[in-house]
TrEMBL record:
Source organism per UniProt: Amnibacterium setariae
Xref: InterPro entries: CheY-like_superfamily (IPR011006), NreC/VraR/RcsB-like_REC (IPR058245), Sig_transdc_resp-reg_C-effctor (IPR016032), Sig_transdc_resp-reg_receiver (IPR001789), Tscrpt_reg_LuxR_C (IPR000792), WalR-like (IPR039420)
Family matches, as SMART domains: HTH_LUXR (SM00421), REC (SM00448)
Lineage: Bacteria, Bacillati, Actinomycetota, Actinomycetes, Micrococcales
Protein name: DNA-binding response regulator
Domain HTH luxR-type: 126-190
Domain Response regulatory positions: 1-101
């Protein structure tokens, strides 16, 4: 298997459906769960929701057939850290697993526009919602919302990457956002 061929990745379990996947994740405590959206008995969205409800800690990376179907959008809302297409190149899939493991989010590049439409519809950001951010946090919020990496923001703002990470964590907490994907969507929705 592709994942097992990597020195830094280890497959600790497999499941035939979402119900088995939730049980395996609870028992094996993996760092990352690669979750198929469409499975028998319990689908990937419901399984992701159940992991979140149980407080099971693995990051979920969803596999889907389409650029962005409603199920993938629901999985992101349920707590998935990202999604990739089933036909993604092996290098992209491996990079996605490593990225999610490191705490960042991954979205299939072809789906960004659809994702913004899906998450952004009906949400209006009010100025008072952003008033909780300091001026520096607002600058970093804008740069992160445009998709800049921590390194790029650090260079732009003449601060360290660690400082950027601290600001991003505070921004996420203040705005009630789970991760950078939600931050980008939030920024675009306003």
């Amino acid at each position: 298997m592709l994942l097992d061929s990597q020195d830094d990745l280890e497959v600790v379990g497999e499941a035939a459906d979402g119900e088995e996947g939730v049980a395996a994740a609870a028992a094996l405590d993996p760092d990352v769960v690669l979750m198929d959206i469409r499975m028998p008995r319990v689908d990937g969205v419901t399984a992701t929701e159940r992991l979140a409800e149980r407080g099971v800690r693995p990051k979920v990376l969803v596999l889907t057939t389409f650029d962005l179907d409603e199920a993938a959008a629901r999985a992101l809302r349920a707590g998935a850290s990202g999604f990739v297409l089933k036909d993604a190149k092996p290098e992209f899939l491996l990079a996605a697993v490593r990225t999610v493991h490191a705490g960042a989010a991954v979205i299939a590049p072809a789906a960004i526009g659809h994702l913004l439409d899906t998450f952004g519809s009906g949400r209006v950001r009010r100025d008072d919602e952003l008033a909780v951010l300091s001026p520096r946090e607002r600058e970093i919020y804008d740069l992160a919302g445009k998709g800049l990496s921590n390194a790029e923001i650090a260079a732009h703002e003449y601060v360290s990457e660690a400082t950027v990470k601290t600001h991003v964590s505070r921004i996420l907490a203040k705005l009630g956002l789970r991760d950078r994907v939600q931050l980008v969507v939030h920024w675009h929705a306003g």
